[in-house]
Design a protein that fits this description.
By secondary structure, the protein is α+β, with helices and mostly antiparallel strands. It has 61 helices and 47 strands. α25 crosses α27.
Length: about 1900
């Protein structure tokens, strides 16, 4: 029995003594006045009566009621029912602080305007809200209505009323006022009482929000409820606790928090608190609190908080079950004939159904938890621990985010303490877990069964709260309606304390005289339910492993113990791969246990090695938590298996499996210790039961061995009351002895696995967890005396915890802390604990002495034979920096290389790492014996290294990798990664030397120190004297140009000249645009007198300088585009809109621009000089391309300075103070702004349609004059502006644009053409209509920059720079502000992309991790943005508007955009020559910072690698995928450039501008200077040489359409990850150094031809991750060309170039097809390729047909050819084609002497000139000479492969007379220089040309 109410309190308003406006609560009276002994009076009640603060009111409000909950220091909750009403007070009373309130006020109070609150409070430990409401309401009714009943009697009866706590009984009570109430007690008090609070909470917040709060509460987050109703706050908090059953919330719980205690919200501990909504502003600064607004129905989760949700499938099942309960109509909503009525549950029943859903959830989550309880002690009190790792591992939820957090929380700790007891009362949850959880798993698929079970549980919960639901016998008087509005009302009277106390004393005396109630004993053995193993087998989780794999494991172990080592060695690699599965690991431990039982634990050396390898692999493949299960099974085995090293010395397996972090985790040792203690405790009591059973011949049914530890503990708890004291003490002593002996045993075990075999290495275990063992314990009992005892005994034993890293000290400390923890929790006495601390140092020292002997003997074992090292092939000029260091190449997470289970594994591989002047190379063989014959090569250029770091592998990968070996991870921007572990034979000094050399080579002092410059330095030194004699003027030009440019940098002269814009009438008709003249170039030398360089200083070099500049890529492209003419007088033609300015020929205006620039014809050079200062890096707008159809031009520049922005756009709202780019006065600034306008106006005037439109390029004026085709401007223009809005950041209905002509993406993206919706709003704006454009958030749209008419010039600018700038409607240009990403974002995105493609470490789910990391990198998002901007610019240019791209500094994204625009618009740039020209012009000449962005030198090391050019190549790759027929070059061409632009093998991409190349003498090189056979400074020359030899860069599908403009799809769904990022070739390394790749094939071919005794098969296995598939299995055309070349060689012919052969074949078949079509039709199969490529304008269709006998090339001319041809005609056509193809293969002796003649040759040192007969042999690639023409004996041979160059020479001493000086020429080889003399100049030039042609053909 318990008191219904403990205290009755009257709290009234009192003014604040501190003088504040608010008052405070004051307790007027409390009954009883003395505290109960069992329940002290709670403090602070006056705060909770008015949670919002004690305030006076000006109106009469109705009484209020709510219940607040208080928690005392003993975690006991007190429920305070507060009934509050208002009383009128006078202002005079308020001023005198209510001094007369102690006197009873019987007189009538006059009405006043202020009302003070007064509260009647009932304090109880029981939660009966309705009863409390009725009782306090009755007191108020007696007071307000003046009933005759005495208040003292009612309150006294209330305080003396007692009711049972539980039992399902009902009690009728009366307070003596004619009232009657029936109180029903719950059947089981362990089940919470919720009434309707849970259902109301779901109505307020919804399913998702409540589930989020539920998970947040279980994972210990802070939860705050907001509401204007106090009772709703209480109900919401009560509902959340009810949902958590059977767990109990143990943190701060305050359903209603008073205003004075709001600082509690800043507590660091979790809480569930409710506050009034008026304090919502106080919650804004709470960054770690989840706020639930009950009134608004929202839940706010801060960004820094991550709520772990329920694991699947539990989350989905719970949501479905809640939907069935809360919305039963959802299931029938889609039925054609829904039921007429659906029975909906009442609110109270719905409440119980919701709780039933969560009860089912907990039963499924905690299914089998009792099988993971460890019973450590039974007497004197049970001590229980929960094995969380075993529970999670067996349920398969190790990697889950929610369940581990819940199990580690305080709520579950209390659950284990309370419900882990084996003998106690059970409730509904225990029955559900034991009996129905397995059935719930079976019924999960049937919604009907689930709903039926939920309703069954809801009925039981409802019956627990309402045992007698039909009883409604309440009778309580209520006050008159509106009584609180009475004007004349007395104050609440002061009660008589004596009367109430007398009633309480009488009732107390009566209770003491009553006999005590005896509570019926309901304790029983708690059922454990089905085990986790049975549950998991039922769910089918363990059936996923192959039985065949387990059989392989068993067979391998059997072979090992039967000493069949050859068979075991074959199976071992498969067994090691199988260890990735959990079932295989369990199978291994079971099989080893079987052999231990057979006393076969002593092994020989090979058996021991195999067993240890399997154990290490088994432990290595375990994750962080599941490792405990396998390590626990292996722990007794590692101390059992051993081998004999020598007589008396034995090595156990534990000395070889120490490199795993599980041994340093104290949680593992605790779990293992408790498990063994439980087993020994169980054995202890089973032996006692057996003795009793023998004596009594009775006992328990069934064998006692079947009893679990919990069942034994339950039996002992049941028998404890009947045991004698002596028996209990005996059992306590036995249990303590058991724990003590196990502690000693585990001290030995821990020393085995923590002390290394070589203790001199001082293995530092502090980072592994030994130094902080206490903080990671999973125990629930706090250590009390452990640390003090441990510290004292460490000092006594001589093992102080000094600052040294001695491993022995750490091991002793670690074991001491472990012993302190487990022994204190297990109840071991202090005497025994001190004895353990004395023993532990001796145990460790004894084990160290044993290990020393084992270590000495283990060194005498024969070393393991290691494979030989392979030496890599090197390039010409590449030298070894360090000899090979033996290393292991570890798996790096790429699934293809590591090999999935069951596939041959290539990694890890053993070999050597080499460091050369060019590359880092690994070459070795796989450690897997089945893959050991393969050679693994992985290499990358040193300059591509982005990160070098030391790594730590948790466990050894192979038995050869010893502990302490250095391990490095090298990551390259070529998407190669090396995770290497150095062999034990490699010293640490060698490793550090390797790292130092690597960093020195990676970041050289200067670009000239890189491999591209250093590779040919010896050659340059050898010919140094000779080079001085030849053309010294060229070197002088470069030096003088650089010198003059440096001297004149900074000289700025400004000519002030006022500019008046032309009027609208005359500006359009100034000039007529002539037709293009593409044959001439105009170079202007009209430089103003005030230019920065005096003409007299460089007049001598100007002509030669300009002649060299004209030969550059920029000028060649200007000539092709027809952007100027060149006359002999160097004067420009006046009728051209543009001219080539030479103002930057000395690189003084802008160092990063080329020497010749295209500018408007009307702009003078001095104007350019001033305009350039307004732009970043002086990169002013210049023309880089012109549309041949619309004559619109594409310009590029850097971003404007802030002053330039203000001046150009005339922003009225720009800031007043703007930082000027240069010091200038107001007039100077105005002049510059006017000249900027003049410059842009000149660009606009150059467009021919400008004059036609009368100065305004409107849509109607332009489209009628210059648009061709059926599409009008009204049809395509809205789509263009829709694309513009999309690029500018606005929303768009479609993903792209459609224009009137051009080509869109291929069939890879079907259906996208229909998705381009028309944006009518913007189209009306461009048509001239006034439309207000706003974004969805109400702000002005960025498209507000767009003017209301079509513009002649669009400026693509950065939105951040143009913020606040408004366009001038009178200007003819328009700004398109876009958001672009900066280089830091590109750098960060690339790092994430590299980690996605080359993760660096294996993961469990590589595919999911790859896709997730790829998405997080946002690399494709950036590609999408670049393509989107480029397509927009292409559309604008195609519609006749010029475009200026002015972003950042003009050398990053600007270069990307203008290059892509030209590539999309001009088919020429899609050829090999055109693409080279494009890169040379836009990237090299216009100054992309290759050296800076590539971090090529030590000065740019801190910048990091920023792949701007790689991003451009990726964009080209995306376009190439969508338009494979439009590009002459292949995808390999792009990969080749992507590799070598960071390799530093060539000088092409090393420097930042032409100016820097000029400084190093690279810009103007002599022809033939670098024509050596192997050395190439330019990547373009190298690629041209390769392209002549083989069609490696050619695209056979190349079939362009004339004038085709490409418009690729840029949606993310259309973008593909470039295979350059994810592919590798382990057989040869990267295939982009072709000399090395070709050399790898020859040994393999020879190996195949060695064995000729057996028939050789042509079939060969190709591994995608290992072999170069394109080389081993080439396409049909490449194979045919190779066969033709081989046939020519066999016939003695000079092999013809492949491209000439390809052209001949195409031309022949075109003509032959025309002839054959006249008589018959072609074979249908020859049309297959043309039809599949979907190209309607293809002129040539190619079909490749392969047969077993021969291969033919069939080419058809028309794709509409029919397939009906006769066989005879087909054969005749085939014979004709074959004969014609091979007609050229006829032997001809003349071909062996391609050119011959007589020459004079100078002999070697001091020898004269002699006449010889020279023969140039192209077949043998030789230059032979004879004594005469008839001579057959060759006197000497010059190998053309050694020739570096051939050039004109000069006469020397003894040269032939009467011969011109120009008849001499020199042949320079790698060995010497040959001097020749011909009969005349013509013959000398012929010999030079023939030799050069022969060199170029090679």
């Amino acid at each position: 029995m318990a008191r219904l109410a403990d205290y009755f309190v009257i709290v009234a308003f009192a003014p604040d003594n501190h003088g504040s406006g608010d008052g405070q609560g004051q307790i007027l009276q409390r009954f009883p006045e003395k505290d109960w002994e069992d329940n002290p009076f709670p403090q602070g009640i006056e705060l909770f009566c008015q949670p919002s603060g004690w305030q006076l009111f000006t109106e009469r409000n109705a009484p209020t009621f709510f219940i607040a909950a208080l928690t005392d220091i003993n975690s006991e909750r007190h429920y305070c029912a507060c009934f509050t009403f208002l009383e009128a007070i006078e202002s005079i009373q308020l001023q005198h602080h209510l001094r007369e309130e102690e006197e009873e006020m019987a007189a009538v109070i006059q009405p006043t305007q202020l009302f003070a609150p007064k509260s009647l409070v009932l304090v109880s430990r029981l939660d009966h809200a309705d009863v409390f409401r009725n009782c306090l309401g009755l007191v108020y009714t007696i007071y307000v209505d003046g009933l005759g009943t005495s208040l003292e009697t009612v309150i006294g009866n209330l305080l003396t009323c007692t009711i049972p706590i539980a039992g399902g009984t009902q009690r009728t009570i009366s307070l003596g006022a004619g009232d009657r109430q029936v109180i029903q007690t719950p059947i089981n008090d362990s089940l919470p009482i919720s009434n309707c609070s849970v259902a109301i909470l779901f109505q307020q917040l919804g399913i998702t929000n409540v589930l989020g709060l539920f998970c947040a509460a279980l994972t210990e987050h802070k939860i705050l409820f907001l509401s204007s109703s106090y009772q709703r706050l209480t109900d919401a908090c009560r509902a959340l606790l009810a949902l958590m059953f059977p767990l109990k919330y143990s943190f701060t719980y305050i359903p209603i928090l008073p205003a004075q205690l709001l600082e509690v919200l800043s507590t660091p501990t979790p809480f569930i608190i409710g506050i009034s909504s008026i304090f919502q502003s106080e919650t804004q600064d709470l960054l770690d609190v989840i706020v639930a607004d009950l009134d608004g129905g929202t839940v706010t989760i801060p960004e820094c908080i991550h709520i772990s949700l329920l694991p699947e499938p539990f989350l989905h099942q719970t949501c479905d079950a809640l939907s069935m309960v809360l919305d039963p109509e959802l299931e029938t909503a889609d039925l054609a004939f829904p039921p007429s009525t659906i029975s909906a549950s009442s609110l109270k029943m719905q409440d119980k159904e919701i709780r039933a859903v969560f009860l089912r959830l907990f039963a499924q989550l905690l299914q089998g938890y009792r099988w993971c309880l460890h019973m450590i002690r039974i007497h004197p009190e049970p001590v229980i621990r929960f094995h969380m790792a075993a529970f999670l591992g067996q349920k398969g939820l190790v990697e889950d985010d929610f369940l581990p957090k819940m199990l580690e929380g305080m709520a579950f700790a209390g659950f284990v303490t309370e419900r882990g007891l084996p003998y106690r009362d059970i409730d509904l949850f225990d029955e559900l877990v034991a009996n129905e959880a397995k059935q719930m798993q079976v019924d999960e698929g049937s919604k009907a069964k689930i709903l039926y079970h939920i309703k069954e549980l809801a009925e039981q919960l409802y019956k627990n709260e309402n045992p007698y639901p039909a009883v409604t016998m309440h009778k309580v008087q209520k006050p008159t309606e509106g009584c609180y509005l009475r004007l004349h009302k007395r104050s609440f009277p002061r009660l008589d304390e004596g009367s109430i106390q007398w009633i309480v004393d009488q009732a107390t005396a009566k209770l003491q005289m009553a006999p005590p109630l005896v509570k019926a004993e309901k304790k029983c053995v708690v059922p454990s339910g089905p085990s986790l193993d049975a549950f998991m087998e039922c769910s089918g989780i363990l059936l996923a492993n192959s039985l065949r794999q387990l059989e392989v494991v068993r067979n391998c172990i059997t072979y090992i113990f039967e000493n069949k080592m050859l068979e075991a060695k074959k199976l071992l690699p498969a067994v090691l791969r199988t260890m990735k599965s959990r079932a295989a690991r369990n199978c291994l431990t079971q099989e080893l246990n079987l052999h231990v039982q057979q006393n076969r634990a002593v092994l020989d050396d090979q058996q021991f090695d195999f067993i240890v390898r399997m154990m290490n692999c088994c432990l290595q493949n375990c994750n962080a938590t599941d490792e405990y299960g396998v390590a626990a099974a292996l722990l007794p085995l590692v101390t059992t298996f051993c081998r004999k090293l020598s007589p008396g010395i034995t090595q156990f397996a534990y000395s070889c499996v120490q490199e795993h972090l599980v041994w340093t985790n104290i949680q593992f040792w605790e779990a293992m210790f408790y498990c063994d203690v439980q087993n020994h405790i169980r054995t202890l009591y089973l032996e006692g039961n057996e003795e009793e059973n023998h004596m009594e011949k009775g006992g328990r049914e069934g064998p006692p061995e079947e009893m679990s530890a919990l069942e034994i503990a339950a039996m002992q708890c049941r028998l404890r009351p009947t045991m004698s004291r002596e028996k209990q003490l005996e059992l306590i002593q036995k249990e303590e002895s058991t724990v003590f002996s196990q502690a000693i045993h585990y001290a030995n075990r821990m020393s085995y696995l923590l002390l290394p075999l070589d203790t001199s290495k001082n293995r530092l275990l502090r980072g592994s967890g030994l130094g902080d063992a206490e903080s990671i314990s999973n125990s629930f009992i706090t250590n009390s005396i452990a640390s003090s005892v441990a510290d004292s005994y460490d000092i006594e034993s001589g093992f102080e915890d000094a600052e040294s890293s001695d491993v022995v000290n750490y091991v002793v400390r670690f074991i001491n802390r472990f012993v302190d923890k487990v022994c204190t929790e297990s109840g071991v006495t202090n005497e025994h604990l001190k004895g353990l601390h004395v023993m532990i140092p001796d145990i460790v020292q004894m084990h160290i002495e044993t290990l020393d002997a084992v270590h000495r003997e283990s060194k005498r074992l024969p070393p393991i034979q290691k494979p030989k090292l392979f030496h890599p092939s090197l390039l010409v000029g590449e030298e070894n920096v360090m000899d090979g260091l033996r290393v292991y190449l570890l798996p790096d997470g790429r699934e293809e290389a590591a090999g999935p289970t069951g596939v041959l594994s290539l990694l890890p591989a053993e070999g050597a790492i080499y460091l050369t002047t060019y590359r880092i190379i690994f070459k070795g063989t796989p450690t897997d014996p089945l893959a050991g014959e393969q050679v693994v090569v992985r290499s990358f250029p040193i300059t591509s290294l982005t990160k070098e770091e030391k790594i730590t592998v948790q466990a050894q990968v192979d038995q050869f990798i010893q502990e302490g070996c250095a391990q490095l991870q090298l990551r390259s921007c070529t998407f190669q990664l090396m995770r290497i572990a150095f062999d034990e034979e490699v010293s640490s000094e060698s490793v550090e030397t390797f790292r130092k050399n690597l960093n020195k080579l990676r970041y050289s002092q200067h670009v000239s120190d890189t491999f591209a410059f250093a590779m040919d330095q010896p050659t340059k030194v050898a010919v140094q004297p000779k080079s001085k004699e030849k053309n010294p003027l060229l070197r002088t030009i470069s030096k003088n140009l650089v010198k003059n440019a440096k001297m004149t940098i900074g000289r700025q002269y400004v000519t002030r000249k006022k500019y008046t814009p032309p009027t609208w009438e005359h500006s359009g008709g100034q000039k007529q645009f002539p037709e293009d003249n593409e044959d001439e170039i105009s170079v202007s030398e009209e430089v103003d007198r005030s230019t920065l360089i005096p003409s007299t200083s460089i007049r001598a070099l100007d002509k030669m300088n300009i002649s060299h500049l004209v030969e550059q890529a920029c000028c060649r492209d200007y000539q092709r585009l027809g952007l100027g003419t060149l006359s002999n007088s160097l004067t420009r033609s006046k009728n051209e809109p543009f001219r080539i300015s030479t103002i930057n020929r000395m690189y003084a205006i802008c160092r990063s621009y080329p020497g010749l620039l295209i500018v408007p014809e009307s702009i003078q050079d001095n104007t350019i000089q001033r305009i350039s200062r307004c732009y970043r890096q002086n990169r002013f707008p210049v023309v880089c391309w012109r549309n041949s159809r619309t004559k619109a031009v594409l310009l590029r520049s850097g971003r404007l300075h802030s002053k330039g922005v203000v001046g150009l756009f005339k922003a009225p709202n720009a800031p007043a103070t703007v930082s000027l780019p240069f010091p200038a006065g107001p007039s100077q600034a105005d002049s510059t702004s006017l000249e900027q306008e003049k410059y842009l106006q000149a660009v606009i005037n150059s467009m021919p349609h400008y004059a036609d439109a009368g100065g305004r390029n409107t849509l109607s004026g332009f489209s009628s004059a210059h648009m061709s085709g059926s599409d009008s401007s009204e049809k395509w223009q809205p789509k263009l502006v829709s694309l513009m809005k999309q690029v500018m950041g606005g929303k768009n209905e479609g993903p792209g644009t459609v224009s009137h002509e051009g080509k869109w993406g291929s069939s890879q993206a079907p259906g996208h053409m229909n998705s381009y919706a028309v944006n009518m709003e913007i189209s009306s704006r461009l048509a001239g209509k006034k439309v207000l454009s706003t974004q969805s958030n109400g702000s002005s749209s960025d498209t507000g920059f767009l003017q209301q008419h079509h513009t002649s010039l669009y400026i693509i600018g950065d939105k951040s720079q143009l913020r606040g700038v408004k366009p001038d409607p009178l200007q003819h240009w328009e700004v398109v502000p876009i958001e672009v990403f900066d280089t830091r974002q590109v750098k960060s995105s690339f790092k994430k992309l590299m980690k996605a493609c080359v993760p660096g470490s294996p993961c469990m789910d590589p595919r999911a991790a790859y896709l997730r990391s790829l998405e997080e990198s946002e690399w494709l998002v950036q590609i999408h943005k670049i393509l989107e901007i480029s397509v927009l610019v292409v559309e604008l240019l195609d519609t006749g508007s010029s475009v200026l791209v002015s972003l950042e500094d003009g050398w990053d994204i600007t270069t990307q955009v203008v290059s892509l625009v030209q590539l999309l618009s001009d088919p020429y740039y899609r050829t090999m020559d055109g693409f080279r020209l494009l890169v040379e012009k836009e990237w090299l000449s216009f100054g992309h910072r290759f050296s800076h962005r590539g971090a090529q030198t030590l000065a740019s090391q801190s910048n990091g690698f920023t792949p701007i050019f790689l991003q451009f190549l990726d964009c080209v790759h995306q376009i190439h995928l969508q338009f494979p027929l439009e590009f002459e070059f292949s995808q390999y061409y792009l990969k080749f450039l992507a590799y070598h632009y960071v390799s530093s093998r060539f000088c092409t991409f090393l420097l930042d501008s032409d100016y820097e190349r000029l400084e190093l003498g690279l810009l103007y090189e002599e022809k033939g200077e670098q024509k050596g056979p192997q050395l190439f400074r330019s990547v373009w020359d190298y690629m041209d040489q390769l392209n002549k030899k083989m069609p490696v860069f050619f695209n056979y599908m190349y079939a362009p359409e004339d004038g085709e403009v490409l418009r690729p799809y840029s949606n993310l769904s259309n973008l593909k990850v470039w295979d350059y990022y994810i592919q590798e070739t382990l057989s040869e390394g990267p295939s982009y150094d072709c000399e090395l790749a070709q050399g790898q094939v020859e040994p393999m071919v020879e190996a195949d031809q060695q064995d000729t005794s057996t028939p050789q098969s042509k079939r060969r296995i190709i591994w995608p991750c290992y072999d170069n598939c394109s080389r081993i299995e080439p396409d049909a055309i490449s194979q045919l060309l190779e066969e033709l070349q081989n046939l020519e060689m066999e016939l003695g012919q000079i092999p013809e170039r492949w491209k000439d052969m390809w052209e001949k074949v195409k031309v022949f078949h075109c003509s032959d097809a025309h002839a054959d079509l006249a008589g018959s039709q072609m074979v249908a199969s020859s049309l297959l390729m043309a039809s599949s490529l979907s190209h309607q304008r293809r002129l040539l269709g190619t079909y490749l047909q392969e047969s077993h006998v021969s291969s033919t090339v069939n080419l058809s001319l028309d794709s509409d050819t029919s397939s009906t041809s006769t066989p005879s005609r087909e054969k005749q056509w085939g014979r004709k084609s074959t004969n014609t193809l091979y007609i050229q293969f006829q032997t001809a002796e003349s071909e062996n002497r391609s050119y011959e003649g007589s020459l004079y040759k100078k002999g070697t040192f001091m020898k004269p000139w002699k006449s010889r007969w020279f023969v140039l042999d192209k077949t043998k690639h030789q230059l032979r000479y004879y004594d005469s023409r008839q001579a057959t004996e060759c006197k000497g041979v010059i190998d053309l492969a050694e020739v570096e160059s051939v050039m004109p020479g000069t006469p020397t001493m003894g040269a032939p007379k009467m011969v011109g000086e120009k008849a001499f020429f020199d042949l320079k080889t790698t060995k010497r220089v040959y001097n020749f003399c011909a009969q005349d100049v013509q013959l000398a030039q012929q010999w030079i040309d023939r030799i050069q042609n022969c060199l170029s053909d090679s």
